Amino acid sequence: MLDIQFIRDNADMVQEKSAHKGYKVNVGELLELDTERRSKLTQIDELRARRNTLVANMKGRKPSDQQVKQGKYLKEEIAAREAEYKAIEEKYAELLKKIPNMPLNDVPVGVSEDENVIAKTVGEVPQFDFVPKHDHELGVERDLIDKERAAKISGARFVYLKGGLVQLQFALVQFVMQTLTDEQVIKKLVEENSLNVSTKPFTPVIPPAMLRTEPYAASSRLDAEEVTYKIEQDDLWLNASAEHTLCTMYWNEILPEDMFPVRYLGYSTSFRREAGSYGKDVEGIFRMHQFDKLEMESIVAPESGLDEHKLHIAIQEYLVQQVGLPYQYIKKCTADIGKPNATGVDINCWFPGQAAYRETHTADYMTDYQARDLKIRIRRTDGRIELVHTADATAFAMGRILKAIIENFQKSDGTIVVPEVLRPYMLGREYI
Question: What CATH code is assigned to 113-426?
């Protein structure tokens, strides 16, 4: 959530920037309710003070009829005002949660992802002397992908990955784990990008794959039920990405300053309905209901937030470059960055089978928006308590990166070259 005092002080800007993000909100109505709820609280406090005074005056003596009558009146008035306050507070909280985080000033203003900005293009797209195949064609030909049998027992958009493709996935996992837990790599990226952040490495985590409604809703990451799977009888949601159970880990906690930055690399099987997917996204393994993902999550002191976000992006570029994939760096516009995000970047890798750059990575910076509802705070060494800042970013979404490798490293005979950086994790194997 946004700070209500910030909204009071910047009502017109909040209304305007919410519209830039595509959110229809009524800041005026929210502030009217805010005024009304504060007035009701004042009334309740005054009535409670009168009742406390009355109780003090009756202490140790039999109350008079007038005092009994007044006590009954105050009790009823307090109950009535509290009921009125509760109704106002519920509506106020509902409107407050609808207001998105404010985009940073350098976020491009746009009404759809079509207005995202290509900041740079890195790497040469591969040239083939044959027509490059889609990942599904190659996977079926080489018995690496079986979607038909998966559909038979699980339905559409599930898959059996087999053989060398499974080995390649776990080579990617080991490569990322080794990279992000190596302080020298983090230090190199911090220095190269002139970032004012710690060189502390990431801690690998396998988080829960389910979470309850209350923390999920507080994270501002709970999508509508048509996107996220719900297990009704247990009030549990299937994790849609590892950061959802990582950003909520310290829900309602105050953390000591010497613990920061908190950096986690989460590996999780995730689930999404992926409503509205169509075309070649359905044919291959680009967009599945079930997928494995390595995700970075950082919980940091406010002064480090933006540079931490930039570190995530630097890591993403480093990983993609090491694998050898051509990509574009995309600055997402206001309509595409998402409700809790102040800014966001996508990395779009090249897919020869579609002759297009497609999103494989995203990096989000939430400032204190996420932390306010989650109530995650930092206790400074001098005793001050502040809200933390949060940032998350894809390391590798396995299906998408496997697809990118399959298509970019394919040979005319259908074999797939194993990227050189991954070969040590596959006993030196050069081809699948």
Answer: 3.30.930.10
